[in-house]
Amino acid sequence: DAGITQSPRHKVTETGTPVTLRCHQTENHRYMYWYRQDPGHGLRLIHYSYGVKDTDKGEVSDGYSVSRSKTEDFLLTLESATSSQTSVYFCAISRDHSNQPQHFGDGTRLSIL
Amino acid sequence: DQQVKQNSPSLSVQEGRISILNCDYTNSMFDYFLWYKKYPAEGPTFLISISSIKDKNEDGRFTVFLNKSAKHLSLHIVPSQPGDSAVYFCAASEGYGGATNKLIFGTGTLLAVQP
User: Fold this and answer.
1) Nearest-angstrom CA–CA distance, A63 and B38
2) Among B12, B34, B79, B105, which is least packed by CB within 10 angstroms?
């Protein structure tokens, strides 16, 4: 199994509070991704990183920011959480861009009340 | 606008029989396709992939077929086992060897294999 750890695994918080989710990898992979999974939508890309301090937006990036200060850590921040951001969040990593599969963590279930 | 579609939300098959999961796509630039399996409370697990230069890829009980003219791919599981019961996601990306490898996922098909 790919060495990917997401923390926390579960979180309940209130609208308007800041939230940070962490993804930690031990594989030294260059690429890291954040997805959210919602019923009827599959998984949708929020942001991704192609190296330390190199990030870009995905399909559903509004309301989210990311940071990657070390190869092994990729942080997803909701500056002011809204109920529409209640979801399951998955981190993924891949070795490089040339058609290598992405490997996923076990997810963070986030509920915003 | 859903670029990757899995039109069957669920599928039920008998143990030992073949399971066929289908996926359609609209973006002709997609050239790399993957199938993931997902159990509850776990992350998706990579199963098998295929690039657009092939029309078939096989790995044990799992075979993926790609029909580029129809923009259709399918996953065959033979024989199906109860442990195969899970949600299966189809995913696609464009730019073979490209810079980002961003995946577009379908909505998933829940497979139930009956003993």
Assistant:
1) 27
2) B12
Residues of A with CB under 8 A from a CB of B: 4, 31, 33, 35, 40-45, 48, 50, 56, 58-59, 90, 92, 94, 97-107
**pLDDT over 50 (residue B46):** yes
Query: b/e string for B54-63 if b means 16 or more Cβ within 10 A?
Result: eeeeeeeebb
Interface check for B45 against chain A (CB to CB < 8 A): the answer is yes
List, for residues B81-96, the tens digit of each pLDDT value: 999 999 999 999 886 5
Q: Which residues contact B30 (CB under 8 A, 6 or more apart)?
A: B3, B4, B52, B92, B93, B94, B104
Across A75-85, average pLDDT:
96
Interchain CB distance below 8 Å, A42 and B89: yes
| Cα atoms in the 13 Å half-sphere on the side-chain side of B65 | 11
Which secondary-structure segment (H or E) carries A110? strand A108-112
List, as ranges, residues 59-88 from B with C-beta within 8 Å of A.
none
